[in-house]
Amino acid sequence: MLKLFSTSVYTEKLDLNVDKIIKYCLSLKKQQKGLQVSNQGGWHSNILGENIPELNPLFNKVLKAANNYKEIISYKHPLKISASWVMINGYKDYNVEHMHPNSVLSGAYYLTTDNSNIVFINPSSEAMGYTFSHNDIEKYNEFNSNVYRVKPSANDLLIFPSWLKHRVGPNLTKKNRICISFNIKRKS
Q1: DSSP-derived 3-state class of residue 73
Q2: Hey, which of 20, 24, 138, 177 has its CA 20 to 30 A from 53?
Q3: How far is Cα 120 from Cα 2, in angstroms, rounded to an integer?
């Protein structure tokens, strides 16, 4: 069997001090109004700087993981984190479907989670909708699914191609979902 046009999402459980990073994120929220990007409700920080003592261990692990992923996809250029930001979603806050232009890889590091998923959309989902209805599929798998849901846990790192559309469902708990998202591009 040939497996054509595969898309992978890199996942890794990190061993960082989540409490220390959460404290930094919450203090940042008190200092900034935040932005509206893909978030519906919730708080999206301004783009973070490059040298943040509380986040430098995370940034180092993100780059290491991105380089591991780079090998999987045979990307030949050196990489750098081009942007990062904090997302804090409270009750009923969510992120609409989007992708990350002008970068090679994107991802998120989860500090706290709720019952919602990050939902990845199959790039062929529109065409698949014409031939694969839910009445036609016996069991969904990587060959016939329009979407793929991932339920992250605290300390989970996800990295994926920036062109892969995704969304995050509403937070239906009373605790905040906190993550740090990032874009990675070719180092000049």
Answers
A1: coil
A2: 177
A3: 23
Cα dist. 185→24, 92, 188 in Å? 25, 32, 9
**DSSP state at residue 180:** E
Give the C-alpha separation, 70 to 160, whole Å: 10
User: DSSP secondary structure string, 105-154?
Assistant: EEEEEESS--S--EEEEPTTHHHHHHH--TTT-SS--TTT-SEEEE---T
At residue 14, does pLDDT exceed 80? yes
**pLDDT, tens digit, for every residue of 157-167?**
999 999 999 99
Tokens of 125: 């989902």
The architecture (CATH level 2) of 10-120+154-186 comes to: Sandwich (2.60)
Rounded (5°) CA angle 92-96-101: 145
Based on the number of CB atoms within 10 Å of its own CB, is 105 exposed (0-12), middle (13-18) or buried (19 or more)? buried
- Whether the CA torsion 165, 170, 171, 177 is positive or negative: it is positive
Separation between Cα atoms, residue 89 and residue 105, nearest integer Å: 23
